[in-house]
Amino acid sequence: MSPLRKLYDWVLHWAETPYGVPALFIIALAESSFFPIPPDPLLLALCLGAIKKSFRFAAVATLASVVGGIIGYGIGAGAWHLLQDWFFAYVPGVTPEAFDGVKGLYDRFGFAAVFLAGLTPIPYKVFTISSGVFSINFGVFVVASILSRGLRFFVLAALIYRFGEPIGAFIDRHFNKLVIVFGMLFVGGFILIEFLL
After folding, report:
1. Range of 18's domain?
2. Which helix (H) or strand (E) holds 196?
3. How many independent structural domains does the chain possess?
4. Burial class for 60, CB neighbours closer than 10 Å (0-12, 13-18, 19+)
């Protein structure tokens, strides 16, 4: 097994322990600034194990992810000159090319760029750190993070709450495709609004 797959399995194993919710909080927080595995698989496993608590788990993931995003923003704003070499060398998804791409997205889409990053499989940590590096308006960053991470986690929880295990298996199998399609629709909507205005 690859190291990333082992890490993924390690994340999932927390759902089988009494420490699932604290682990969800820590993983969601860490993923927003440096951890390579998103909290979604653990969130799905916890929701499937206790369907009536699905929205509670989504709230925990949202809160932790936003706090982690603020930490990432702080790293970018205050310590990037000290930590950038370490991040580029050791944190998957954080590359100079990714930062250049993010700068272009910020210049073009602003709020929508942060919102989309919080919703999709794009490494969110790249956006949180680069938001601080590029001095993106902090209030805009926080609002976009709350809305996008909340939407992402609460939609997953709502689907599990409503449809149970069959939808959980479907989401787990097609998660990246689903969020890419949703992301394309979202960006398409912004482009359409820009075109019409």
Report:
1. 3-196
2. helix 165-196
3. 1
4. buried
